[in-house]
Amino acid sequence: MVDSEYDVEAGASVVGPRRILGIAVPTLGVLVAEPIYLLWDMAVVGRLGALALAGLAVGGLVLGQVGSQLTFLTYGTTARSARRFGAGDRRGALEEGVQASWAAVAIGFLIVVVLEAFSRPLTRLIAGGADIADEASRWLRIALFGVPLILLTMAGNGWLRGVQQTRRPLAFVVAGLVVSGVLCPMLVHGLAGAPRMGLTGSAVANLAGQVVAAGLFLIALVRERVPLAPQPRIMRAQVVLGRDLLVRSLAFQACFVSAGAVASRFGAASVAAHQLVLQLWNLLAMVLDSLAIAAQTLVGAALGAGDAPGARGLARRITAWSTVFAVMLAVVFLAGWAVIPQLFTADAAVLDRVHVIWWFFVALIPAAGVVFALDGVLLGAGDAAYLRNTTMAAALVGFLPVIWLALACRWGIAGIWSGLSAFIVLRLLAVVVRAVSGRWTHLGAEVPRPV
After folding, report:
1. CA distances from 288 to 21, 149, 253, 371 (A)
2. Which of 163, 246, 336, 427 is the least buried, fewest Cβ under 10 Å from its Cβ?
3. DSSP designation for 9
4. In which domain, by residue range, is 275 found?
């Protein structure tokens, strides 16, 4: 059963396909729910025209990077909670969730204050034009109030995954997104007697759903009946682990923000096409991450219980499954190259640029299957420092030189995705080398202190 205690005596030897899928399938629901909603949001807003879609792309890029920068609230909390859970300390695993939630609230309010002050110049910097920046800024000023709620949801996902409870997060996240999904077309297009708010209606719908999801995670934590007072010692330890995950996230965001900025310089159709395919990529990443998070949860528990051979066996099995699954997904998107993009836009210029990107997108999916699975293994092992260093190197050596050459030489959207391809391939080499070396199998209830 998924929500049962980790079997310390039997260790990872009892972790078969049923248990792995028992964690991965509900986690998949959590991970794909938001990208599916974002695609729905784009489809609703896309009927307003290319300018509104580009405004959503730029505003959504800024908001998305906020959450992506703070992945330690999910992945760091899972790593620490899973270790304690595997060592038989469920109360300690829950305390990690309490402290991560305090950190989420504090960081979230700080971000709201800073970005509300700088939202206008930030969107102008990314958009490269006043028309797109105006649309993006109006959306972003409303959506930013959801940041503390987004971070609370991230922390909640982290501690619940750590104690191997994956059904409740699915219910909480889906409840919030259903609220957003119903409100979005009503407020954007003025359906069922609602005011027609245009693009800003999308932001209001997002905010309403975030209130619901974050509230459910908070209620679940309170019901665990653990002390709710802040504990600076635990929060400091979380921040130490979070430091490396934050730097790693900065490398990701340098890539994706640069890609969005360069795409904007090629016009509204290019940035809309780039964001559409990027959202599909994010959807696939979440699908593949379901197995990666199963790896993170189970590998962390195995190492916490002192079972290094079991942890290595899990790493091999889950990576093989992820690779096969990724190849199957690549075949599906290859076959749907002409039909799938038309589900999201009828704009001929946007579709033309989407088809340029599509072949890069399909070719990268199998590589992503390996990269994401081994990322999960290494995150579960607390090997954040290695991931930090190699991701930074892939960004600096592979992606950023190509992306800015694409702008200088006017290579267009193909140049942007060439840089993204280099980034993925370099990360693939790095995680395979580390996994084969076995240097990540540190045992014990405590996550190894990053260097």
Report:
1. 12, 25, 20, 10
2. 336
3. T
4. 11-437
